[in-house]
Amino acid sequence: MSELSPPPPPISGYVVVDLSSDIAGAYCTKLLADGGAEVIKVEPAEGDPLRHWSASGAQIADGTDGALFSYLACSIRSVVVDPRSDGEFVNALLADADAVVWSRGSALAEDPGFGPQAIHRNHPHLTVTAITAFGLDGPWCDRPATEFTLQAWSGGIVGLGRGAPDRAPVYVGGRVGEYLAGAYASAATLASRMRGGAELVDLSMLETSILGLTYYPVSYHEMLGRPWRDARRLTVPGIARAKDGLVDIGCGTAQQWFDLCAMTGHQEWIDEDSPLSITEQANEKAEDLYAWVADQTVDEIRDLATAFRIPNAPVANGANVDSLDHFVARRSFIPNPRDGFTQPGPPYRMSPATLRPPEPAPRRGEHTEHYRNRPRNIIPGRDSGRPTARNDISRREVPPIPRREGLPLEGVRVIDMTTFWAGPSCTHLLAMLGADVIHVESTRHPDGTRLIAGIPVTEEQWWEKSPIFSGLNTDKRGVTLDLQSAAGRDILGRLITTADVVVENFTPRVLESMGLTYDAVKAIRPDVVMVRMPGFGLDGPWRDNPAFAYVIEAAAGISWLTGYPDLNPFEPYSVGDPNAGIHAFNAVLLALEHRRRTGEGSMVEAAMVDAALNVAAEQVIEHSAYGALLQRCGNRGPTAAPQNLYRTTDIDEFGRADSWVAVAVADDTQWVGLREALGCPDWAKSDELATASGRHAHHDLIDRHLTRWCETRTGDDVVATLWAHGVPVAKVLQPHRQTEIEQLASRGFFEQVDHPVNPATRHSTMPFRFSRGPDRVHRTPAPLLGEHNHQVLTELGLSENEINRLEAVGVIGTTPAR
């Protein structure tokens, strides 16, 4: 390799067999291929279903592939097999591989010999990552589901008050849940790899939906005795119509509300002693705020909001997102290497570690003969005690990862300089998987999630009573440092000398104003992995704009597909943060592997908006490939018909007739099941309804009949009846009712966590289970403010007198500064 050529991607030589169908598995293997893995997609003769898919209904000509497939399948290989006769060939591929990604949906995956447990048993060296709706075991493991019904079960449809109070609530559009599941599956596969693989990874899409679409609602409810939200209402201002288009204006903190009042010329609205929350105050002034927005252009509003440090973004869609000035400046979009349409670049950027530049997606079976005929090179086996066939001689040059016991990230130290949700969700996974994560706050600026629980400041230790902080920070240690002081920065530098990874998620100017650039951190610890997670990236015209989930979702196009067709879009207000966190976690694992192989550290830029653009990719792809602008359709969607919410007879816990079920018929067999569940009424026997196209065309008719049928039944009755006939269905749960789901209880998704200030409270864990453990995820509660100051500073060599002096002058502390 010449001095000028880039290093190989971090996981080059890592071989993954893809036995999955649909977006979740495909996005998982796309992320692995971006990292350098050799991904072999095993397809039936007719090809993967995504080859024939277009969300807009565009016709896919024979011999060509749908654009979404061409995006997700960049850089992978394709082999075609006949499940009836090619078992030996498939087993040879598995014997030569390091990992397999599996989901239901193909004849091969449904073959008992190629289920995940059978593969794990027959090829014990592999990491076998299984992606299913509910998990591989438990009472619901074989129940039918779609992403839509999983959103309902998760509480993600109603948990953040999305929708108008006089209509059904609305789901988050764009199939984001499938992308989230894929990102988590990739992360779990890479984490397993770090301890030598040889295990079954069991991922539940219900659980990824809970973590991606709700905000620790069980912990919130149990700790504070109230739900996060109990009613649907517009976020104000939120997404509003200006003179020339839609704009999203955020108001997530008291200071942002005060600034919004000043920006709109209403300083008289500012009342720091108001008994109302900022949300309630904004709703009181909604009419005036919307009138002000309507009288300005989008650019005028955004210029003012940026000057006032108020989160803001244009509302992007498939037609305009790639032309927004920030994305043009950052080259956020690239041409598809085979078909030329526009697609997002990678969800994170790395240097000197490099991702693989996307290569053209394969034609169906393009590599079949290559894999059938190439010689198999036998090299020493793994812990299974038998030799394993390895096809890629270059892998001999990669230092092997021996199988070891313990958690995947034991021995890794992380300095966690993150706040709110996106950054802490990344470092929380690192901590739960064994890393020593030291969460750095200051007494002047504690982690923002300590401040959003609505606990009166008159209450003793109010800052320790946030269920959101608790949910995001178990298994971490906590220190406080005043980084405005020279002494605080000196301590931070000493911490960095001990660190493998440093993670931060401030706007770029914050750390740069303190001199904490990557070059500065690298000068302290040359092989450090520094992960920067700004909302909009480290460059471009929006780089210093404050970013919360809702403006990221608007800027990436996620909001555009969420809501009713006759109203402005709604902010999902959820997925932007955890989506950024799981993508950053993937990037950390890749950078650590690069360091293992080369000894080099890396700078990782994991901008929230880049991760969001990737999970919203289908919009820009459909528009650039087919000229189709995807639109929001309430609770309908492009995959299933019927797909909608229907009211039941139940009265909800707040005394309202506001209880719903979600129904989604994804194929013709499920339609037959629905028809039988309804008693085969005459209207349902029409031949036109026997096909998906006919059901889409007559969706209104089906909705009318399903509405009448459901409104005379309880939610439990609807679910039991439809599940018995193989139809995907769910109750639309309030998110704090997740603990009532027997499937989650069976899988141990919630663990009770003791706390020195708060009552013992159930906390969500991880959405995947490793067959090699851990059996328990939460080992220690979230740290009290500065709880580990003495412990950590003593480890750095400071004396008790030095630590006491730092505390006396306010460099460290255990209570918020007044």
Automatic annotation (TrEMBL):
Task: Name the enzyme's class.
Answer: transferase
Q: State the InterPro entries in the record.
A: CoA-transferase_III_domain (IPR050483), CoA-Trfase_fam_III (IPR003673), CoA-Trfase_III_dom3_sf (IPR044855), CoA-Trfase_III_dom_1_sf (IPR023606)
Extract the Pfam families matched here. CoA_transf_3
Regions of biased composition (Pro residues) lie at 344-360
Task: Write the lineage as a comma-separated list.
Answer: Bacteria, Bacillati, Actinomycetota, Actinomycetes, Mycobacteriales
Check the record and name the SUPFAM superfamilies matching this protein. Answer: CoA-transferase family III (CaiB/BaiF)
Which PANTHER family does this one have?
SUCCINATE--HYDROXYMETHYLGLUTARATE COA-TRANSFERASE
Q: Name one GO molecular function term.
A: succinyl-CoA:(R)-benzylsuccinate CoA-transferase activity
Q: Which Gene3D superfamilies match?
A: Crotonobetainyl-coa:carnitine coa-transferase, domain 1 (3.40.50.10540), formyl-coa transferase, domain 3 (3.30.1540.10)
What spans are recorded as compositionally biased (Basic and acidic residues)? 361-372, 392-402
Q: Where is this region: Disordered?
A: 335-402
Q: Which UniProt keywords apply?
A: Transferase
UniProt name for this protein: Succinyl-CoA:(R)-benzylsuccinate CoA-transferase subunit BbsF
Give the species.
Mycolicibacterium vanbaalenii
Write the Enzyme Commission number(s) for this entry.
2.8.3.15
